[in-house]
Structure formats: C-alpha cells, structure tokens
Amino acid sequence: MKLLLSTASLIHAAHCRNLLDAAGIRAELRNVWLAGATGDIPFQESAPQVWLLDADREAEALAVLEAAARPVPGPPWRCGRCGEWHEAQFGACWHCGASREPAGTTGAG
Prior knowledge:
This protein is an alpha+beta fold.
C-alpha cells in the first residue's frame, strides 16, 4: 500500500477515491473520522488520506486524477435519449443515465 494524497477535505479525498475506483484502481480512504481531532493530534495525522492498494499503479493513479482536474475542452453535447445538454467532460447523462454517444452518431433508432 502507498499513500497517494492527503487533503484537508474529506469530500476531495472521497472524490479522488471514486475517480480511481471508476478507473479500476483500487484505493481506500483513511482518517475519515479524525477531522474533529485536528489540533489534538497533528494535521498530517488527522487529514483524510487516499491510499493505493497496489503501489505499482501510482503513476496511473496520478494520471487519472490529473485528467479529472483538467478535463479536455470541447463543445457541449446533447443526450440522444432525453435531450438534456451537458458539458464536454461528462460521459453520461445526469438526467437519464444514458452514455454519451460517440461523435458522428445521431442517436436515431
């Protein structure tokens, strides 16, 4: 196991772990309940942390987090199922859950 990141925000740590999980990289959260102890114990010991279960995948994990932090710009897209508009970085419709169709498809059946 390897410590990947330590952050002041449990929400940020959980989001990073979820991104890694979606990419097939196993990770776990630690120090989930220690925020209230900050001050009594050092911040470095109480901050939420994301740990990789496979230390050999560190470079891949960092690349996943970097890609999420800097999404590829592009035009918005419209869901072929329900018609909802989305920003370029989203791969599925928030409204109906349909996957984004590859470029060049019309969504017509």
